[in-house]
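FAQ: What does the model actually see?

It sees only this:
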Amino acid sequence: MQTKRLLRILMVVVLALSLTGVGLAQNVPVTPKHKSDGGKFRVAYIQGGPYFEYDQVFLAVILQLRKLGWLESVNIPSRYTKDAQGIYEFLSTNDKVSKYLTFVPNAFYDSNWQDNLRLANKRKLIERLQKRDIDIIFALGTWAGQDMKNMPPEFDIPAVVMDVSDALKAEIVDSNEDSGRDNLTARVDPLRYQRQIAMFHDIIGFTKLGMAFEDTVEGRSYAAITDVEAMAAERGFEIEKELHLGYVKSKEKAEDWLLRAIKRLGPKIDAFYITQQLAIDQTSLPKYLEVLNRKGIPTFSQTGSVEVRNGVLLSIATSGFKYVAGYHAKKIARILNGAQPRSLPILFEDPAKIAINLKTC
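And it is asked to produce this:
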């Protein structure tokens, strides 16, 4: 594809898109405050397992909380910013980072994509309910969101679910307007992936779109397959799928399977949609792109700008997750100021900005 032609098409697509987002209710302030007893709010963190996007979203939320005044202007050393656990470790061991928040040292829960650890971490959080030593939970990803949703009815620690592909299809929220639990809030953008596929199709005009994902409830949610199928029916293109039956819990095995799946799809497709899954991070991504680029297959990243910087052709520009992180940070601030999590709007649409890798095209 010629770069000039692609840029002309992109200009048309940008003009056709609208920049939208739902503002939060303004009746509850976001200004920092102490607890009623004068102490700091105690924060816990849970994730289903290591995933690069959780790391980046968590850091972005911390930066936005700092912008709101909840944290001091303390720089986190780069050696701590490689993953969420490192970020949390720094925050939990440096009392000066905040006058208002304490990141409880033994309250970082990572299930490492293992069912037994997932169950154990859920039990530990239930035990903390009895101790009343946690004031808010940051829950990153689908597993963590599902665990917060499925807590016993008496579990009332506020939980903010972040970085979930589709909270409704993953059964984390009851609808696109209601989380279904008083202590729970999340984020939905019901047309997010349909907008991505529409943009990709407008620009490339593909007829056979390749996808490879885990054929589980979570895997189908991550892949947004229902949305892609809806766009295929509307626009008349076909979807060529490679499905892994059941859960993949070893990153090494996940990467091996995905690479083989992409090689099998290569001769059948004229575009590929790169979706969130265990097999993909910024270390493994180049080997998949090498196969796809060698065959001249255009790619679109579901995740955003970070993968475009690493060789994917197109995506929605995420600006370091600044916009969605600001949305989550304001919700956290309002909850700590007394807002019921369920009362906060859960709809937030990504800004309609395009990221393009000109070297790839």
